[in-house]
Amino acid sequence: MIKLLLLALLFFLGYSFFQALFPSGPKGEKGEKHQSNRSKSGEQMVQDPQCGTYLPLSEALSANIQGQRHYFCSRKCRSQFKKKA
Ligand SMILES: [Zn+2]
Fold first, then answer.
1. What's the gap in Å between 57 CA and the centre of ligand 1?
2. What contacts 56, CB < 8 A, 6 or more positions away?
3. pLDDT in tens, 13-42
4. CA-based end-to-end distance of the chain
5. Dist. CA 53 → ligand 1 center (Å)
6. N or C: which end of the chain has fewer CB within 10 A?
7. Ligand 1 centroid to 59 CA: how many Å?
8. Cα 52 to middle of ligand 1, angstroms
9. 47-85 in b/e burial notation, b at 16+ Cβ within 10 A?
10. What is the pLDDT of residue 30?
11. Span from the CA of 68 to the centroid of ligand 1 (angstroms)
């Protein structure tokens, strides 16, 4: 009987060790939710300071001008804004 208990204990230890190695395991719902959060709606909109157009951050061209981060709808707007600045 004691042998059986020991075996169960070993099995339990092995199982918890396995879970520690793979924390997301088969029921990794948390990670999935976290990942899909970004690409869905609620994307940040930015304004092009040159022409005033609003566009999603993922489509905007970014540039650091005089220490400030600006976002543009096109390269044309970016170069025009740089000339002005
Ligand atoms: Zn523009």
1. 13
2. 43, 44, 45, 46
3. 999 888 888 876 555 455 444 444 444 568
4. 83
5. 6
6. N
7. 12
8. 6
9. ebbbeeeebeeeebeebeeeeeebbbbeeebbeebeeee
10. 52
11. 17
- Ligand 1 centre distance from Cα of residue 40 (Å): 24
With H, G, I as helix, E, B as strand and everything else as coil, classify residue 27: coil
Lowest mean pLDDT segment, chosen from 33-37, 52-56, 61-65, 66-70: 33-37
How many A from CA of 69 to the centre of ligand 1? Answer: 15
Compute how many other C-beta atoms are within 10 angstroms of the C-beta atom of residue 28.
Answer: 13
∠ CA 49-50-53, rounded to 5°: 70
Structure-token pair, residue 70: 């600006």
Over range 36-54, report the average pLDDT.
80
Please tell me the distance between residue 74's alpha carbon and the centre of ligand 1 in angstroms. 6
pTM (2 d.p.)? 0.50
